């Protein structure tokens, strides 16, 4: 039985005792105690700060640790244990960096720029194929899935590999800029 | 062409590698393309507006230099491999 709780902003630790008593038949059980809403992202409260910070798009383990050491947070301290002043400091540091939507926009702009100029890299993005010289005879699944997503904004045609081929190699059928 | 070559670049103290084209000014003025096999030539500011025909091993592909292309090589704009297209063969 899944025990799922979303009491926004309030830890419900009293429910933990029920979680142990009720027999758990499912293979896994979800117990989310509470989330901290910071800069547009929900962060799990009970996690260590340096781990919770990785939940931001654009922050990985290294940057998270750097932020924690910059603000003198203890290595094992949890998000729920931070005071309000510390949280303000944290959001101040985070708002200086390019993360989340700003970063996504930047990446998309870079790819668009390459496509606009007409470089080889831009063409590979438009085709949805690997960019860094990998083999395409087999093994290009991730590239076919992810590459060139930023170029597919104005789609009116079903974007399948077949239509991409049919419409020509160096002209992404769905990109705004045509060479 | 390895895109990573753009990233692991030439040492700065050496200066960028580029080729002196004799008819560059003529090309910018009149629009006549310059045929070249120098794919490794870095695009410099004085080349803006020129039209090149860059070799890709077999043919010469047209490249028109704009301001955003500075710092890249001529070969980046001249693809070397033919696109993969699948045509079902009728021979059975």
Automatic annotation (TrEMBL), chain A:
Keywords: Ribonucleoprotein, Ribosomal protein. One of its GO terms (cellular component) is small ribosomal subunit. One of its GO terms (molecular function) is structural constituent of ribosome. GO terms for biological process: translation. This is Ribosomal protein S13. PANTHER family: 30S RIBOSOMAL PROTEIN S13/40S RIBOSOMAL PROTEIN S18, SMALL RIBOSOMAL SUBUNIT PROTEIN US13M. The keyword Ribonucleoprotein applies. The lineage of its organism: Eukaryota, Fungi, Fungi incertae sedis, Zoopagomycota, Kickxellomycotina. Belongs to the universal ribosomal protein uS13 family.
UniProtKB/TrEMBL annotation, chain B:
It comes from the Eukaryota. Keywords: Ribonucleoprotein, Ribosomal protein. It holds the Pfam family Ribosomal_S19. GO terms for molecular function: RNA binding; structural constituent of ribosome. One of its GO terms (cellular component) is mitochondrial small ribosomal subunit. One of its GO terms (biological process) is ribosomal small subunit assembly. InterPro entries: Ribosomal_uS19 (IPR002222), Ribosomal_uS19_CS (IPR020934), Ribosomal_uS19_SF (IPR023575). Gene3D superfamilies: 30s Ribosomal Protein S19, Chain A. Belongs to the universal ribosomal protein uS19 family. This is Small ribosomal subunit protein uS19m. It comes from Coemansia aciculifera.
């Amino acid at each position: 039985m899944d025990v799922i709780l979303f009491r926004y902003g309030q830890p419900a630790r009293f429910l933990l005792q029920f979680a142990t008593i009720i027999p758990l038949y499912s293979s896994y059980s979800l117990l989310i105690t509470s989330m901290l809403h910071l800069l547009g992202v929900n962060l799990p409260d009970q996690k260590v700060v340096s781990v919770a910070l990785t939940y931001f798009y654009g922050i990985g383990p290294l940057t998270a640790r750097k932020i924690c050491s910059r603000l003198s947070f203890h290595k094992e301290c949890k998000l729920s244990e931070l005071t309000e002043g510390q949280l303000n400091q944290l959001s101040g540091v985070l708002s200086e960096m390019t993360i989340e939507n700003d970063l996504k926009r930047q990446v998309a702009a870079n790819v668009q720029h390459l496509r606009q100029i007409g470089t080889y890299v831009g063409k590979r993005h438009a085709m949805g194929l690997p960019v860094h010289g990998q083999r395409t005879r087999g093994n290009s699944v991730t590239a076919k899935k992810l590459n060139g997503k930023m170029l597919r904004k104005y789609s009116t045609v079903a974007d399948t590999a077949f239509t991409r081929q049919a419409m020509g190699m160096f002209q992404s059928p769905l990109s705004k800029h045509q060479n | 062409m390895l895109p990573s070559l753009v990233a692991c670049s030439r040492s700065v103290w050496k200066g960028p590698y580029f080729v002196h084209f004799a008819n560059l000014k003529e090309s910018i003025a009149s629009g006549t393309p310059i045929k070249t096999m120098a794919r490794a030539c870095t695009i410099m500011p004085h080349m803006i507006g020129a039209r090149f025909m860059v070799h890709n091993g077999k043919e010469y592909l047209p490249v028109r230099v704009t301001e955003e292309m500075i710092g890249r090589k001529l070969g980046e704009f001249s693809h070397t491999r033919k696109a993969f297209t699948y045509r079902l063969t009728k021979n059975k």
